Amino acid sequence: xxxxxxxxxxxxxxxxxxxxxxxxxIDIWQGAYELVKQRMTDATGMFGKVTxxxxxxxxxxxxxxxxxxxxxxxxxxxxxxxxxxRAQMYEHLLxxxxxxxxxxxxxxxxxxxxxxxxxTPRSDGGLNHISNRILLCxxxxxxxxxxFTLSGLQRENKKEGYMRCGVRYSxxxxxx
Length: 176
Ligand SMILES: C[S@@+](CC[C@H](N)C(=O)[O-])C[C@H]1O[C@@H](n2cnc3c(N)ncnc32)[C@H](O)[C@@H]1O
Ligand SMILES: [Zn+2]
Description:
Layout: E1 2-4, H1 11-18, E2 23-25, H2 31-44, H3 86-97, E3 114-118, E4 133-137, H4 138-144, H5 150-160, H6 162-175
Parallel strand pairs: 1-2
Antiparallel strand pairs: 3-4
Helix pairs in contact: 1-2
This protein binds S-adenosylmethionine and zinc ion (ZN).
């Protein structure tokens, strides 16, 4: 069964017909029907068995979703109250965890080596709120990027061993 949801000028459908496949085509352009009909008749001499509709299809599955994970994530709203400043968040996290990177757990003499980041990335709907903020060393922050959550980063650090982090770190230092 070949489905071409943008079947336009029918190249795919004609190929499918020639290969004796069942096929279905969809196109937003009304003219596609005439074109498909014409090309199919020219190329294969058939069009009689083909059904065509411009009625929207009727659901027969009782409204179930087969792939709920494809749904657009609902945007969570920031909790009420005045937003914290970056300095307040820093203070709070330093108070809770000490001057440690929450990604690799290394302790720093100078907390300025720690960068304020998001646990769930902003691009995945993560909040600016303190509940979603973490302190990371430079290499962990760059490794995490927008790809990992904090637990993903910690797993990655374990997998790679701290050596890589150390190597990257000296690289970063030499840039400061
Ligand atoms: C390059 S043509 C496709 C060619 C086709 N696959 C073939 O084998 O000949 C692109 C088609 O997509 C259709 N199209 C664009 N947006 C669409 C949409 N949202 N839903 C259905 N068809 C759409 C256009 O009308 C156009 O006919
Ligand atoms: Zn780190």
